[in-house]
Amino acid sequence: MPTFVYMNRCDGCGHCVDICPSDIMHIDTTYRRAYNIEPNFCWECYSCVKACPQNAIDDRGYADFAPLGHSVRVLREEEKGTISWKIIFRDGREKKFVSPIRTTPWGSIPSTADLKKPVTEDF
Amino acid sequence: MTSSEFCNIRLRLAHLLTMYGFVAYVSATAVMVFEYPSAADPTPAIWPLLWYIGALMVCIGGYWFWFFIRVDVAAEGHSPIRVMRADLVILSLLASTTLALLWSWLQTSGIGWFMFGLYVIATTVLFGSVPWSKFAYMFLKPAAALQKRVAEADGSRSNLPAPADKPETFGKARGLPQNY
């Protein structure tokens, strides 16, 4: 169930390239739009889907095991601190969710770089 | 008139500089060539001024974009001097305006005609290569913009959820979230 890019909506900004933890979102050298270079390696973390400012990335199962007709789309609004989901089932049911992006202030979680380096004596 | 497609402010500024600079540069060129073709027709000072300002705007926006902003450099981390066929338009545009400025400053020197020849070649490449570069965009961009507007107008929004409207819980659009 890999991600794919609607190239007519993509403006080639590169946000998905920056955020993909697998480093599989890259820019097509001919069309200068993003695309998933290795769908097999995609673990559908939705980072690129949420990061895209144009909402040009979607995640959908392959048609041979996930029949078409469903939709899972997400809208991340950082200025409001919300992330919204809209899920459409094949039978037409819709479910909508709105959640905060986080429940702690930005910058409040200490970086692991600030942790004390373990020494052998600690063990 | 702004390029509302760009959420990246630097990309948007570079695009606006290049776009309006190009309009001023090409308009001034056309007016000076067709309205004041000879020394007998004195050219009002505004047209050469617009020509220089337009060419400079294109150079500033274009070089800024080329070396720092374009996605190959900013996101993919490629070298700024890496060139491929997709760069045909921006490189020929930069060559045209840079050579135009160089020719304008060197036209009374010994290499004036040489610079003019280079300038004409670069400008011909810029406009002549459109069928292999930006021609498809002339149809794709309006169609994509229309599709976006239709999706907004008919309420489908491409199955995206509606923008959140929970300021009392998750904060207001003009302020930091207060849900923690």
Describe the structure.
The complex is a heterodimer of chains A (123) and B (180). By secondary structure, chain A is mainly beta. Chain A has two domains: 1-62, Alpha-Beta Plaits (2-Layer Sandwich); 69-103. Chain A is 8% helix and 27% strand. Chain A contains two helices and seven strands; from the N terminus they run βαββαββββ. In chain A, strands 5-6-7 form a three-stranded antiparallel beta sheet. The longest helix of chain A has 5 residues, at 15-19. Chain A is globular, with a radius of gyration of 18 Å. In chain A, 24% of the residues are buried. Chain B is mainly alpha-helical. Chain B has a domain at 1-77. Chain B has helices spanning 9-35, 46-69, 71-74, 88-106, 112-128, 135-153, 167-170. In chain B, helix 1 (9-35) runs antiparallel to helix 2 (46-69), helix 2 packs across helix 4 (88-106) and helix 4 (88-106) packs antiparallel against helix 5. The model of chain B has no long low-confidence stretch (mean pLDDT 85). The interface between A and B is large, with 39 and 36 residues.
Keywords for this structure?
A: 123 residues, mainly beta, Alpha-Beta Plaits, three-stranded antiparallel β-sheet, 2 helices, 8% helix, 27% strand, B: 180 residues, mainly alpha, 7 helices, 0% strand, elongated
